[in-house]
Amino acid sequence: MCANYEQAKIIRQLRRLGAIENKPREVYPAGTGKIVASIEPSALIDATFGLMPHWAKPALARSTYNARSETVAEKPSFRSAWRNRQFCVITAQAIYEPNYETGKPVRWRIERADGESFGIAGLWERVMQGDHRSRWSFTMLTINTTEHPLMQRFHKPDDEKRMVMILDPDQYHGWLDGSLVTEEDLFQQYPVERLVALADPLPPRVKK
């Protein structure tokens, strides 16, 4: 799972899809991140981190930021976007996960070993608002990583081990147009040798 990530500084692999430079910043559920959506594959779109169907209240975004690949086609919050092939690629420089090996949660930063940005598989929703503006939102697809040498180190000891579904650059177009969605290779754990992780706790809050 991933409830916090750093937006990509520059998405080199997505340049052909209209990617632009971005300032690095962290994104949390209900915050705003950048996506490339299947309906507009030549643009980066600002969207809420947490999928919000047309019937959803804003608070739902805090519980729909991740979708399990095994059940995404069935869950009420996600099934419409999945059925309508509303696929997106989320641009990220790093993801953050809690490590409990010290007995307490310590935030760790996980990124690609080559320093390049991630393309994370996701779903999008778009709702037209009363002022004729679009409200975009998205969720990240996750897969089981119980046997992954790195990702099994995160989250509480008794929690299921999961990670976001990281795409290779040559899979971006196939994910967006849906041609690769039924391919088993798409839903594989990302190789541990292509990732690096370090403890990166948040600085203490300053009392006012």
Describe the structure.
The protein is mostly beta strands and 208 residues long. The chain has a single domain, classed as hypothetical protein yedk fold, CATH 3.90.1680.10. Helices cover 5% and strands 37% of the residues. It contains two helices and twelve strands; from the N terminus they run βββββαββββββαβ. It has a five-stranded mixed beta barrel. It is globular. The mean pLDDT is 89.
Query: Total number of helical segments?
Result: 2
Work out the radius of gyration. Answer: 17 Å
Which runs of at least 5 residues are low in confidence (pLDDT < 50)? none
- Strand count, sense and closure of the main sheet? 5 strands, mixed, barrel
Structural class: mainly beta
Q: Averaging pLDDT over every residue, what do you get? A: 89
The strand line-up of the biggest sheet is 3-4-9-8-6
- Percentage of residues in DSSP E strands: 35-45%
CATH class annotation: Alpha Beta
Number of domains: 1
Tell me the CATH architecture.
Alpha-Beta Complex
Number of E-state strands = 12
The CATH H-level homologous superfamily: SOS response associated peptidase-like
* Spatial separation of the terminal alpha carbons: 33 Å
The helix/strand series, from N terminus to C terminus, equals EEEEEHEEEEEEHE
Overall geometry: globular
Task: Classify the fold: give the CATH topology.
Answer: hypothetical protein yedk fold
